[in-house]
Design brief:
The complex is a heterodimer of chains A (71) and B (250).
Chain A (H helix, E strand, L loop, with lengths): L1 H11 L18 H14 L6 H6 L3 H11 L1
Helix pairs in contact in A: 1-2
Chain B lengths: L4 E7 L4 H10 L4 E6 L2 H10 L6 E4 L8 H11 L2 E8 L14 H23 L1 H4 L5 E7 L10 H21 L4 E7 L2 E2 L1 H7 L2 H10 L5 E2 H12 L10 E4 L11
Parallel strand pairs in B: 1-2, 1-4, 2-3, 4-5, 5-6, 6-9, 7-8
Helix pairs in contact in B: 1-9, 3-4, 4-6
Chain lengths: 71, 250
């Protein structure tokens, strides 16, 4: 989880991420952020997620669980 | 002693476009199939016609001995390479503010520098006996246009196309050098993103002839390797179903 949140915080340019953080509330959350996250998951974790699947995630933990479910 | 067999080198042959080109050309050419993953290269080989194809597993993103490995492969198999098709490539999508020298070097190494090193190796008389006749780079319409998050990718394909033109002049009339600038092609990799209804709708609106097939690319490569295209060199050939000339708002 720590490693995943580190990668996510690099993309979002923030110091740390909490489980309960709402993804869409991050200052740098936009359509390009979504593409960047999908590209990072694909190239670094070999996990493929669709935009629709990512849209279902509300909090950082939702996204983490979605990614873990794909491993 | 028999004459060395002539080969066509295809990088990125383990999947998608590179694999389709390999299968198509295997009917008439001996192939060096390059890729990172040996298992997937073996799959490509099984899908090809003929038994003389050689596998070359090498990571173009980090391997510093590309030239040495290729030289060894050519000399130890006693072959010569007539055609080089560079299909290996990665796409990086990131905010400009997230770019680092590591991400930049990686994409430039795979998409551009490796193509230069391989071309250089194949031009050496001591290694390839002036056998090289044809070089084709798989580029992208993003070489000519921009998109958010694609600065490194656009730059790597732009570098490839600029080098292509200079090489075409330097190596004429012996070697012809061209780029094929692709739009969206349906591959196992892209299929995943096409599953999104929104992306699919956008693509349908943007591509007058729809999304391309890997065979569309293979047909173009076959033409560029043939004598039918003997008067073509130094060209950015756009193969994009009309995407780049579509100015419609919807």
């Amino acid at each position: 989880m720590k490693e995943f949140y580190k990668k996510l915080s690099d993309i979002l340019e923030i110091d740390n991420i909490e489980d309960s953080d709402t993804l869409r509330d991050f200052e740098y959350w936009d359509s390009l952020t979504v593409l960047s996250i999908l590209a990072m998951l694909d190239s670094e974790l070999l996990i493929s997620l669709t935009v629709e699947e990512l849209d279902e995630c509300i909090t950082a933990k939702d996204l983490y669980l979605m990614v873990e479910g794909k491993r | 002693m028999s004459n060395p067999k002539k080969y066509t080198l295809i990088t990125g042959a383990s999947s998608g476009i590179g694999r389709e080109i390999s299968i198509k050309l295997s009917a008439n050419c001996n192939l060096i199939l390059h890729g990172r993953n040996l298992k997937r290269l073996e799959e490509t080989k099984r899908m090809c016609n003929g038994n003389n194809h050689i596998l070359w597993s090498c990571d173009l993103g980090s391997d510093l001995s590309i030239s040495e490995e290729l030289t060894h492969l050519i000399t130890s198999n006693r072959i010569l390479v007539s055609n080089f098709i560079h299909c290996a490539g990665i796409v990086t999508v990131m905010h400009a503010r997230s770019i680092t020298s590591i991400t930049s070097n990686k994409i430039m190494n795979i998409n551009f520098t490796s193509a230069m090193v391989i071309t250089s190796t194949l031009l050496k008389k001591t290694i390839n006996q002036q056998e090289l006749k044809n070089v084709i780079f798989m580029s992208s319409i993003w070489s000519k246009f921009g998109a958010r998050g694609y600065s490194l990718y656009c730059a790597s394909k732009g570098a490839l196309d600029s080098a292509m033109r200079a090489l075409a002049i330097e190596l004429a009339p012996v070697v012809r050098v061209n780029s094929v600038l692709l739009g969206a092609i349906n591959t196992p990799m892209s299929e995943k993103s096409f599953l999104d209804a929104e992306i699919m709708q956008n693509i349908n609106n943007q591509y007058p002839l729809g999304v391309g097939k890997t065979d569309d690319v293979a047909c173009m490569v076959e033409f560029l390797l043939s004598s039918d295209s003997r008067w073509m060199t130094g060209q950015q050939i756009i193969l994009d179903g009309g995407r780049s000339i579509n100015m419609s708002s919807k």
